[in-house]
Amino acid sequence: MYDAVLDASLWSAVLEGIADLTDSAGALIHGFSVNREMYTFHELGRIDPDCKRRHELYHVANPWMRSSRFRAGHVVRSDDLIALAQLKRTSFYDDVLRPQNIAHGTIVNVISRPDFKVSINIERSETKGPFSERDIAVLNSLLPHLRRASELRLRMLDYRAAAQAERDALDALSTGIITFDAGHRVLFANATARAHAEELSLHLNTGTDVSGPPSVTNAFRALVGDAVRGGAGGAIRLPRGDGGDIGVTVAPVRGHALDRPSHHAMARPVAIALLVDVSRTHDAASALLAARHGLTAAEMRVATALAQANDMSTVAATLGISRNTLKTHAKRIYAKVGIRGHTELVRAIAQIAGTLGPAI
To answer: Which terminus of the chain has fewer Cβ atoms in its 10 Å neighbourhood, N or C?
Structure first.
């Protein structure tokens, strides 16, 4: 059960085991968003997926949903919610239960929050009859473990949602970002980096070296190799097919701001490459500043905005945050970079921008 927290494919066997312990046909566990009135995930153990799909599409409101009124951990028999004869007259029974030869169930709110619930259903045929006290006792013995596993799963889902939001934010940047491990292999590349790589005929395959035309890759790999060995890296300008140039800056990664398993599942990043249209060097400079001083993704966005505007209110409005939040981020940025205020931040980014994109 606890292994299923990290590997959702194991839930099917867990649920089938619970069904077998209670002499039932099958079982399912699902998460329900109260505010959105929809199921956000489900795992099935010998439950027909098509019937579950009809349940979610057409029968979110159904007689068995009355179990949601009960506190978490309280085992509710479906027969206590609605008599079988009455249940058989519902479209829920015709569409969801009857095709699976299911007539009786037990429903438990494993987790019950005002905005979210996790429930487990154990279901059996009319022939097997209602659930006995012995079946309820078996289920009660499993509930503490189901609750812990479900809490852990919700934490993992929250983490993955936050990680996806971070990846989306990185993909929205106009600066291309590529990170490398100690073996010079690509760990992560955002959408802009992949777009620029395509313009340069470079291939960015996770887990391998950058590949492409030797005239491009040799210079690129040399800079990555220097940064991986602890050197300063460097910058080059690579011509695009349309006549424009892509400035590439490679530097070692300082600190642990990029140590996110969501971005780097294989290894720790030790070098970063920034790819930018030479007309947007300030964006690249902010990203390089972040890599050098361990700024978070949020701090990098703040630093970029601060470098492009003098008025704090304008920056706060642009980022969609309050002035107080902006001031907090700014203080952290100044402390990490080792500067005393906005003017020095602008100067630092301008100095870095001035070093980007030299000729090969």
So the answer is: C
